[in-house]
Amino acid sequence: MMMMMMMMMIMIMMFELLFSVPDDNDPAILVVKSLIESFPKVDAKLFIGAREVGSNGKINNMVRPYEAAKFNIIVISDTGIKTTPTTLREMVSCLRPEVGLVLQMPYCAPRKGFGAVYQQVYFGTMQARNCLSANACNINCSTGMSCLLRRDVLDKAGGLAPFGKYLAEDHFIADGIRKQGYKVVLSTLPALQNSGNCEISDFHKRLVRWAKLRMTLLPTLILLEPLGESVIQGAAASLAAGYLLDMSPLAFFIGHLLLWFLSDYILIRIVQNGPLPFSKFEFLAAWLFRETMAPYIILKGHMTHHVVWRDRKYRVKWGGEVERIPLPGDDVQEKKEECKKASSSVTVQRSGKKMMEVLNSVAVTS
Asked: Which residues are identified as catalytic?
């Protein structure tokens, strides 16, 4: 589905909704126009056509509405994020004078299928553990799925356009805001990813891309990241316990995994803030699958020489900059994809639902 970015500007009782699609073939256009007509009192605009400022398609898509924004406080929300009635109010409440950026920790809305459970377990355990611990230690662990920022602060760092040369633009935006002396904080409500695609193979491609980007941004993670995985850490610790303490390595390893499992279960219950939308058996199966697949994902990230994002290949340079790798028949393939997406009623329905969620959220916030 073509990326549609939404930006909401909130100032006391005033706000505007700015929607942006990269081209006029996006099926969300009809939905947004229809809803703008249905809510004439809402200050909403639709921007069609991206401005090429770099290799990052998301930044290209957001530059025009960002520059046209009326207000200083900006919320950036990806199309696949489910907005709740209290989301904006809670994010704005975190924006104290010393705070320049408010992030929502990535999580998932309940969906059907093992792939959905697997994604929810990943974001509720491993990703939540890394995000919360990094935030506690004042380490940059930013994700840009849903965030609130001060435009005047970002403008001092050059605005949005200079970050188009990175795929991990969220990391560098947070870094630019931190360098000006402002804090980056986490909202108490997570960002609920609600994409209709729960295929495990596609999710693994996403994880491999993230692993590759992390290694180029922070080379120290090449050695440190594997040590943070339960299987690798448990194997090393059990061998050490057998050699130094004359303990059974197998018994130590099983105890290690059991303690890790219980800790992750408690963590995901905290993130969920209530009972999980799946059974304990499903959690166990998804947790074991994630833990055993983690070494493969890390190794795959080491072995790949490029990353794939939205059917485009990029070469990642040390430091985070990327350059697009042209593919034969790119133009023809893009036209085929546009025709296919334009006929997708599911995409249209999801876009309409997103608009309604945002309007409800803004109404409650106001």
From this structure: 170
